Amino acid sequence: MSEGITLEELQLAARNHGMPLEALRHEITPLGLHYLLVHYDIPVVDPAAWRLTIGGLVDRPLELSLDDLRAREPVSLPVTMECAGNGRAHLEPRPISQPWLAEAIGTAEWTGVPLAPLLADAGLATDALEVVFTGLDRGVEGGVEQLYERSLSIADAEGDGVLLAYACNGEPLPPQHGFPLRLVVPGWYGMTSVKWLERITVVAEPFEGYQMITGYRMREHEDDVGTPVTRIEPRSLMVPPGIPDFLTRRRFLPQGPVTVEGRAWSGWGPIEHVEVSTDGGASWHAARLGDPPGAAAWAPWWFDWNAPEGEHELCVRARDATGRGQPEEPPWNIGGYSNNAVQRVPVTVTA
Questions:
Q1: CATH 2.60.40.650: which residues of the chain?
Q2: What is the rounded distance in angstroms from the CA atom of residue 10 to the CA atom of residue 294?
Q3: Distance (Å, rounded) from C-alpha 196 to C-alpha 173?
Q4: Burial letters 129-140, b for 16+ CB under 10 A, else e
Q5: CATH number for the domain formed by residue range(s) 235-350
Q6: Tally of CA atoms within 13 A in the half-sphere of 37 that contains its CB
Q7: Is the peptide bond before 186 cis (omega within 30 degrees of 0)?
Q8: Are 21 and 239 in contact (CB under 8 A)?
Q9: Does domain 7-228 bear CATH number 3.90.420.10?
Q10: Euclidean distance between the first and the last CA atom of the chain, given in angstroms as a whole number
Q11: Short-list 315, 312, 316, CA closest to 347
Q12: In this structure, which long-range contacts are made by residues 52-55, counting pairs with CB atoms below 8 Å and at least 24 apart in sequence?
């Protein structure tokens, strides 16, 4: 980074947290280690009084309690979720916002009810175009006072795996992860999975709320209308090998055989190939790829390295079934979104 973070960014960093990369060893991220981003304040919700409403262009508006939702057949899915701003702090010039490095990631097992059958129960009107999801968290962003709201097309909302989740890793949702109910949209960046969900509204026109029209768009300059941020770009991260220096986090390990490990994921399709470089990207070698715990979750990989004495830069990159991969240099945009450049880990190998 060319300059220190601002006081405002420090406030954000103190409220939110990433997943320590050594936690990549867990197939399912322990809940306290899963990344967290809270846009505004964490609402206090009385679960007995809370209701989810489904309305708008539907034939049969619904009002559901938490018990109503829990009475339906539950579904549990492991889902890898990543913040759209992950990697923002590596960009030059650095966009001013939550200063994520590479740790805004986690894989949890979400339990809840599929959204599609609920929409079917409500009965969508023939002119229904989008579904708007409204959370209870309220704040000001871009000078606009708002509840946090985002929308999906009907096709995306009815897609496989889209859940209204009331539990995570076998426990009720904690307050910071959206208690009592949140949306989970597999394969999409985390901003899509609206927390503290209270209202679902079916509409006949594109939703023009702040988080859709102004926030979370790929823009090259201030006057650029941009394109929306949607699915997660391919990324692979390694567990930094050896032990760290406290301040710089540079890694130290003895020379000799070492297995470098990590996980890779993409919102566009399954990961098909992972490569590791031990010389800063001058040469690349195929890693062994394992099976993910689910279709929307990360896949494990391993690479055997006979580490010679000296200074090294380890890198990793992945490619998915659609042919999408990772660039060596991060693409820049105003919001600092979708930076999936290869991870680089400096390592000192001692005799």
A1: 235-350
A2: 35
A3: 10
A4: bbbbbbbbbeee
A5: 2.60.40.650
A6: 23
A7: no
A8: yes
A9: yes
A10: 32
A11: 312
A12: 52/164, 52/181, 52/197, 52/198, 52/199, 52/200, 53/198, 53/199, 53/200, 54/118, 54/119, 54/122, 54/200, 54/201, 54/202, 55/122, 55/199, 55/200, 55/201, 55/202
Residue found under tokens 């042919």:
323
- CA 137-78-168 angle, to 5 degrees, is 45
Of 104, 110, 79, 82, nearest in space to 173 by CA = 110
Task: Report the amino acid identity of residue 126.
Answer: T
Reading the block at residue 232, the tokens are 């997660």
The residue whose two tokens read 């859940």 is 163
C-alpha–C-alpha distance, residues 336 and 99, integer Å: 10
Residue 259 φ then ψ, to 5°: -100, 115
CA atoms within a 13 Å half-sphere pointing along the CA-CB vector of 54 = 22
3-state secondary structure 88-126: HHHCCCCCCCCCCCCCCEEEEEEEEEEHHHHHHHHCECC
Omega cis (within 30) before 206: no
Residue 333, φ and ψ in degrees, nearest 5 = -150, 160
Task: Determine the Cα–Cα distance for residues 198 and 58; give it in Å rounded to an integer.
Answer: 17
Task: Kindly give the confidence (pLDDT) of every residue in the chain, 351 residues in length, as a single tens digit, with 9 standing for 90 and above.
Answer: 446 889 999 999 999 999 999 999 999 999 999 999 999 999 999 999 999 999 999 999 999 999 999 999 999 999 999 999 999 999 999 999 999 999 999 999 999 999 999 999 999 999 999 999 999 999 999 999 999 999 999 999 999 999 999 999 999 999 999 999 999 999 999 999 999 999 999 999 999 999 999 999 999 999 999 999 999 999 999 999 999 999 999 999 999 999 999 999 999 999 999 999 999 999 999 999 999 999 999 999 999 999 999 999 999 999 999 999 999 988 899 999 999 999 999 999 999
CATH 3.90.420.10 domain locations along the chain: 7-228
What is the model's pTM? 0.96
Instruction: Please tell me the distance from the alpha carbon of residue 197 to that of residue 186, in angstroms, as a whole number.
Output: 17
Tell which residue, 258, 290, 295, has the closest CA to residue 273: 290
